[in-house]
Amino acid sequence: MELEYKCGNCERGLCAKGCGKGQCQLNVHDYLADLPDNQEATDLVEVQFKNTRKGYYRNDNHLNINKGDIVAVEASPGHDIGIVTMTGRLVSLQMKKAFIKPGEELKRIYRIARPADMEKYNEAKAREHDTMIRSRQAAKDLGLEMKIGDVEYQGDGNKAIFYYIADGRVDFRELIKVLAELFHVRIEMKQIGVRQEAGRIGGFGPCGRELCCATWVRSFQSVGTAAARFQDVSLNPQKLAGQCAKLKCCMNYEVDQYIEAGRRLPSREISLFTIDGEYFFFKADILSNMVTYSTDKRIAANLVTISAQRALEVIEMNRRGEKPDTLEEGGRKAAPRPVDLAAQDDLHRFDKKKKKKKKHRNHNEGSQNTHTPANEEQS
């Protein structure tokens, strides 16, 4: 079914050409794909390979390429196989986001993939898992402090990219020689972080949804414990760490709102003075704009919860040398009277029922005794 919307004085349908498969965070909706001259505007093409690797190429041969086509592109050495993810005007914007300069020389697209290309491509991909296992063993035998997380073969099988994780610098020159002798391909080592590894592997977070790093997060920002303190989150490493053993990326999502809301609260260092005594800051509910004060600086004693506006009013009164009767708004409130549950009903109500039953029983016995002699005389 085609949806319609109005654009100016005309009606047009929503374009389905710009929609992708949505398999990972690199998918982008090309909202200009339905324009008549979109593909002719530029010869730049965006091509995606395994997982999160993308490249930008020139369509010098002016092939009729659309989003979703599998193409053979120039590589060093040989050629690689990838899938077209974007064509037209938006490719230039994507290159700008990838920090690729306009004058930089780009490789070109050879052709749309042939059956022979796909057969060689599938053979190379089938070797990736076995190559990863054997390369891990080779690194272990050499005593290298690194972990090989994934292996990606080039489309023609002449080159392999080894993605590894390491805490520090690793001298893998000897490892490259061993891998080249084992697999007889050109070796390329590429270091990735633990967040990128989690995004490549995928999984589900404690929220029940798929990991953000595996769905839409492209660039990873540093996450500090200050984000947890601003949101009053318990500094428990087991709760704050994600599957990558680093602080969760989602802690940065709402920290700006918490910082902005925290500016409307009174300072934690300022205590409030009333006729009753001094009240110290105990805790704050940032989103509800409520503050709780205690009469003891170290423990929770005689807690009073008021709004931040009321706390600021009391602080202003203290600056003028005035002390309110109480922290609550509207003055001192009468203490609630205790409710005596025993006084709600008579405790002897059960005895009265028993007496009634006994009296009723005696009445029945008396009536039986008066009628029995009469019956005997009649008999």
Q: Please, could you describe this protein's structure?
A:
By secondary structure, this protein is of the alpha+beta class. The protein has four domains: 13-113, no CATH class; 122-192, 2-Layer Sandwich (GMP Synthetase, Chain A, domain 3), CATH 3.30.300; 207-259, no CATH class; 264-332, no CATH class. It contains ten helices and 14 strands. The chain has helices spanning 90-97, 115-126, 128-141, 173-183, 194-201, 225-230, 237-240, 255-262, 308-319, 349-378, and strands spanning 4-7, 10-13, 44-48, 54-58, 70-74, 79-87, 107-112, 147-153, 159-165, 186-191, 272-273, 278-285, 290-294, 304-307. A five-stranded mixed β-barrel has the order 3-4-7-5-6. A four-stranded antiparallel β-sheet has the order 11-12-13-14, with helices on one face. Strand 1 and strand 2 form a beta hairpin. The protein is elongated, with a radius of gyration of 39 Å.
Present the secondary structure layout.
Blueprint (H helix, E strand, L loop, with lengths): L3 E4 L2 E4 L30 E5 L5 E5 L11 E5 L4 E9 L2 H8 L9 E6 L2 H12 L1 H14 L5 E7 L5 E7 L7 H11 L2 E6 L2 H8 L23 H6 L6 H4 L14 H8 L9 E2 L4 E8 L4 E5 L9 E4 H12 L29 H30 L1
Parallel strand pairs: 4-7, 9-10
Antiparallel strand pairs: 1-2, 3-4, 3-6, 5-6, 5-7, 8-9, 11-12, 12-13, 13-14
Helix pairs in contact: 3-4
